[in-house]
Input
Amino acid sequence: MTPSCPTCGSIGTPVLFGLPAPSALEAEAEGLLILPGCIEPEDHPHWECHEGHGWATDEAEWERALNAILEGRPHCARCRGPINEPNHAFEHLCRFCRAGA
Output
């Protein structure tokens, strides 16, 4: 269950600090994750709403949400990057690795 903002009641989006993996960049592009950068403040938020309010929740709840967003995304067998558009001849490779195949 996605928590609601304690300030405005909007649905929250998980916030992930650090150097993002390709699957995290893809999730951010889809609006499923917020990637604010590598420097994690001491009292960092786990969630942020569309109004920009940030808040922390139980660590386990936040981790479950991240896992649900990041797990199960298809990845390239060569570079481990996301596969956005399937291609029957090279289903296991991303478009960059297919170009070099």
